[in-house]
Amino acid sequence: MRYILIFICLFQALPATSQESNQSQIVKGIVQNTKKAGIAGANVFIDGSYDGATTDRNGHFSFSSAQTDSVLLQVTAMGFEAKSIWLQIPLSESLVFTLIEDQHIIPEVVVKAGEFRIGNQANAALSALDIVSTAGSMGNIIAALQTLPGAQVAGENGRLMVRGGDPHETQTYINGIRVGQPYTISGNNLPVRGRFSPMLFQGTNFSTGAYSAEFGNALSSILNLNTSPEPEDAKTDLSISALGLAAGHTSRMGKTSVSVNTNYISLKPFTKLFKQNIDWTQPYEQWSGEAVIRRRSEKHALNVYASFAGERVGFRDYQADFARDVETHVRSHNLYTNASYTRYLANNWKWDLGIGAGYMQRTATLDTLQIPNKTKDLHIKNKWSKSVNNSFRYFFGLDYFYQNYQEKVSFGSITTPAYGFTNQIAAGFGELSYRIFPKWHLDAGMRYTLNTQAVSFLEPRAALSFQLDKQQTASLSYGIFHQQPTEDIQKFQPDLPWQMANHLILQYSYATAGKQLRLELFRKSYAQLVRFERGDPNFARPYHTDGDGSVNGLDVFWRDNRSVRNLQYWISYSWTHARKWERDYAFAVQPPYVAEHYGSLVAKYWISSLRSQVGITNTISSGRPYHDPNQAGYVQEFTKPINTLSMNWSYLITQQKIIHISVSNVLGNEPVYSYQYAQNRNAAGVFDRQAMTPTAKRFVFVGFFWTISRNKKDNQLDNL
Amino acid sequence: MKALLIIILTFYSYGSFAQTAYEKAMSEALQLWEAGNSTEAAAKLERIAAAEKTQWLPSYYQALILITESFRATDATQRAQLIQRGNTIISQKSALGSSSEWLVLKALSLTSELTADPMNLGQKLSPKIIETYQQALKADPENPRALSGLAEFQIQTKKFTGGNSDKEYKDLQKALSLYEKDQHKEPFYPTWGRDRAEAMIQKQP
């Protein structure tokens, strides 16, 4: 019996051991990257067995396996694409695996010259929260953007200007759809604000030049604001501030969220409390409402935004041309809808359809003159994108724009016939993004535009970037851009050809954890700029399109979040050397809206013991040129440099209740933005002038924000 | 009779041999991790997971190791890679095994992502982390890791934003009693988290 037992045991054990000793095979080799350097810590194993090994420091591995015949060998390594291969065991020689770096894992650090990304992407220069918590911005996206290099905002107008371009040269987009009226209304020399609340947007793509072929009709820059595609959780937001009241509610049903916000703003209390430089007959007042619908499922994403706003403003101030106080009154109604739909298709295809429609009715009353106008905008966009693999992507699409502008002038009982223009633009675009060599990345695009003036043109765009090492990138961008003449000229003369610009940008960037340095050199040349005789545009003037110009400059941006705990700051400086022969300039001069030197410092510090964030923003700009007709020469004078210091303080009473205080121009400087001269001499033979100054020395904002939600973490810090 | 016994024993040992191969490999992997060799441990777990397609624990521990390592990573790229790899495993394998434990892992991975840049990511990720822990508790109200993880995250956040943490410390106490009761039959079922909860309670101000 015992023998049988031994026999059985032997018999049982035998096949296993004989297999071990006779057929166990050594599998060995090396795992390397594309540069033939060994990869350490890679896992090499036979799928379905426990057999395998990790590579040593030099990428070598060796293990034995009792498996025979064909086996599936798997190789995985951190930061590389996995590889699997069928092999016949036994092997006659050692194996060599070359793994490709996984570019999906590390968000590609392709920094394009001229492009500023703001959002949560890995290579974003700033986050959305950075923008809205910038002191002095008062919840105005545009005011925050002016602290970035290449951007300027003229105090008397509030609009974003990029690298020597006037405000019209920047187009605003939401989710790639053009926004016809991105600003609130104002009277002459009163600054406007961005129309959209920063809280709507998750990411911002701010291009300071040489932007993608996806966009067009902008000579200098595009600002693309992206809303979050994710549905939001249910919550109620309430706020009360020195400026007005706001209430919002979001409800969520599964994958869909619906938000409704209403807002009332009045500057009346502010103008009563603080000394004003002009006499308000109707301090700025706005009532608005918006609705946002977001729906997302695995294959689809839908985002619908709809808003309406009514605004009015009225004031009496001295006008050099009238040589007396004149009353101005502006009111407007604005409707805007933006809908975008994305469908994720098989084989890494993506289809985007977007529609934007805007309607604005605006009436300006100047003394006894009444000027009502209506603007209608429509943009339809169709875009297909394909990701072939990690190093090759492309997209193409079609754009259709419709724009209609109608205006009349009434003087007492006389009303002029309506005048204006209708534009229809069709465009096709395509762009490919290709990693040519491991360190070289190319974006090349082309845009074809056909417009109402029956003029068509091709616009090539390209960006080439070279990765010097993990932290440093150099890149070069180039493009040709066209834009229709501005509304104030087109309404009198609709058939002018489009203006043109060339951009060339060279960039160097250095980025490490929490720190970033960007240097950009740029050159922009203009052609076919519209010119007219001295004065404002009107019907009677002949218009020429032989204007030209160039802007050369340098931008510097430094940001540091790391060096000091709880402190974030950034510094930006722009040198803009602009010479343009456009509008009514006698010859090429530095345009009156451009400051040659412009710099900002933004700092934010979190004090945890006080549960507060304090911030300062300091902006310095050199004087701007102006023409003094009382003196010899042309555009011979400069205003004084302007320094503006703003501060803010946010205090979290609890996680969901916040008090926010913000003061602009803390030092109480009295900047003169520019001077406006009368068109004719007065009785003494002198041209009268009027200084353009802020309407109040300081702007003070105090507000209380309260969020009610099931999830106790939501708050309105983003809105400040 | 003896022969029958032997045959039964032989068969039994054969049957359990397959089981022990898995258990042996798992114990080896977890020992490697305890010994501080996390790369080797994660690699071994990956091999076990490839061989035992119906088991959830090899993948669970692989992801747990990757995410735990990500908290320690000083290099931003490496950190992102570890998190990304952990997340891939979570999304591929979380249909197997305890959904509550997978959700706790997901919350940990989000927390690691947040720690990389709390000032900018806090607003976006904090609600998600809390929601994920709450889902984990919903799936298994007795999961001590979900309860103590949520409490710890909220205590840490309140250090930054202020507020009273009494409720969280009570939850930690409750979690301790849940750890006591936590008797899962499945071998290698997660048991971690108790020491951390105890340490948190000791540090209670």
From TrEMBL, chain A:
Stated name of the protein: TonB-dependent receptor
Main location: membrane
UniProt-listed Gene3D superfamilies: Carboxypeptidase-like, regulatory domain, TonB-dependent receptor, beta-barrel domain, TonB-dependent receptor, plug domain
Highest taxon of the lineage: Bacteria
Domain spans labelled TonB-dependent receptor plug: 138-217
Keyword vocabulary terms for this entry: Cell outer membrane, Membrane, Receptor, Signal
Subcellular location: Cell outer membrane
TrEMBL record, chain B:
Family annotation (Gene3D superfamilies): Tetratricopeptide repeat domain
InterPro entries, per the entry: TPR-like_helical_dom_sf (IPR011990)
The name this protein goes by in its record: Tetratricopeptide repeat protein
Organism: Sphingobacterium corticibacter
